[in-house]
Amino acid sequence: MTNEFNVNIGFAAYSAKCENSRIFLMSQMLSSAPSAAFGQAQLRENLVSGGKMLIKVCSALFLTAAWGSVFAQSESDLEKKMLNNCQVLANEINQSHSVGISLEAISPLVTWRAACAEKPPTGLGNVTALCQGKRFTAKGKDDVFFWQKSQHGKLNNGYYVCGV
User: Fold this and answer.
1) Residue whose C-alpha is closest to residue 156's, from 113, 124, 115
2) Helical residues (DSSP H) of the chain, grouped into ranges
3) Beta bridge partners of 144
4) How confident is the model at residue 125 (pLDDT cuts 50, 70, 90)?
5) Cβ count near 162 (within 10 Å)
6) CA distances from 60 to 49, 55, 102, 147 (A)
7) pTM (2 decimals)?
8) How many angstroms separate the CA atoms of 34 and 159, rounded?
9) Superkingdom of this entry's organism (predicted)?
């Protein structure tokens, strides 16, 4: 009867076929006795390096959590700044075009596709503010998409009344 055994000692893997499995196992045990001490030392070294790795992982998680709270704070500040910019822009558009955008129902946007409008902001320049708000008229309330663009230091404002 032939059996195949895989015996792992240290880093090496031994595979052998033999007629008598008892003789094979005994010979492997006797020949691996000096390697067993090496295996225990290697195991101890692996445990120490595993502990060091655990400390590194915990430190990385702590730093990630701390950075995340700082990022969340700066994101909150950015949202407040965007809302403030939208309120100032709504006041400017209300004064120049008499649109009647309510300052309480304003929300800053990151992309025009999130707005009620079916087309992007018009005009030349780079978008510096995208906002959406509501206006109240005798006919009811309407959503208003409004924006500000800047080109060569000149600011251009625009708006769409949605659903009209």
Assistant:
1) 124
2) 21-31, 33-97
3) 133, 161
4) very high
5) 15
6) 16, 9, 46, 41
7) 0.55
8) 83
9) Bacteria
